[in-house]
Amino acid sequence: MNTPQLSHAPLALIEQVSLDLAKKLDEYKSVKIGVRLFSEKTGVSERTLYRILAKENKPTYQTLYKIYRVIFNTSNESLLLELVPEVIRNEIKKCNPNKVSEKIQYHQDIETQMSYDRTFAEIYILAACAPITNELIQYRYGMSGMLTVEKMIEMKALRVTKSGHYSLGENQANFSAKTLKRLGLSLIEKYSKVQNAESFGENIIAFFADGLSEEAYDRWLQVDAKAFEEKIAIANEDKSKGAKRAFTFMVTDTLNEK
User: Fold this and answer.
1) In whole angstroms, what is the distance from residue 39 CA to residue 66 CA?
2) Taking the model in full, what pTM does it have?
């Protein structure tokens, strides 16, 4: 594998990404052509790439994964963490809700499979919450679900525990925003129960919209980010582990199409 010679000077995150992206785009005949082709390879919009080059915004950890996968030409995201500059590695570790472990390899092909196979995606999420049984899979998905399980075991997305249950395997997925949206909407459509919103303590279904200043909108985003981080912290406490499989899906955005 050809390893790009990136700067590892102690730069701030935005400066580091901008520098590494600019170096990668030097391989093309022009910046315009490079941005277009790099956008096609990474799935990151041309608009976002130009903003990164101009140091106008801070990319999310999902965007960092997309950019550096192409720069280092690898879909093995555990290996990728070893290759990226330290400031990038630290940002990904800080923001990514998935745990970093030597026993876990993050592969893009697992996410790709989840993006178009709903049964694969649901079984993956169920196993991420707690080990699942043959009975549960057959009850929910029939024999086609068992065929999916066989495929997941082959891909090492699932493993068989000593008790004969299935839990997540050594190959797992980091989710892009596109996959998160598709997965979240699918789970909401199937599992959000409007009748449970009739009383407190069962679930939360809420919506609100208003005209906001830039400052107020930024505060909204900060509140949501903090709330999401706190939910993950609660889930990671040993005393929090239990049999109730639960999900949370958060979106805050503007009412503009672009």
Assistant:
1) 10
2) 0.75
